[in-house]
């Protein structure tokens, strides 16, 4: 990920929380195969597991699942079976991209300070994203470890989505609400994916590189648009700008101490 200093987010707990809030990630692999395309991508909802939630450094693991009928899945199964010494772990690194809930085109008309004075402005696009890199283990056999992984995965994912995404605090839907035989049939048609995270990078490209006058113009511009998406962008631009200013003040105070 290209990370300008103004846009980079290095706080690991914040990056883990971003994934929890935006669990749909694009799973990307590059696996050489005579039968399937080398580069394949699949959107998957993920869970992130850490042993210590208070840790400032633990990257954690991702858990997800995919349909066996997916050609992407077939390529992964082929690869791990050919790499039999890996214990189901893919030799190649993988990547997962998570995108924030809102993004938007930014018109140069919002740059109320620079545009009138020099005209040296161009359009851009504001967005937020987290990229994960790591090693993938594929649970695709008929062994007890795979059965346990899949049962835990679908139960935990349903609970996360029902309680944290949907906000149901009483009587959320659970896997146990579905007939056991039906669930068993579905489990036979999916594989589990576990990612040992080795690198975690985040980016908020939200106009915080701009001077205060242009930044305020962006905020007012999006507020004028008035849609839910635009208002969310405005608040994020404001928050990230305030964070940038606070960090600059802290560095200045530290340098003068």
From TrEMBL:
UniProt xrefs under Pfam families: FMN_bind_2 (PF04299)
Top-level taxon of origin: Eukaryota
Protein name per the record: Transcriptional regulator
Origin species: Knufia peltigerae
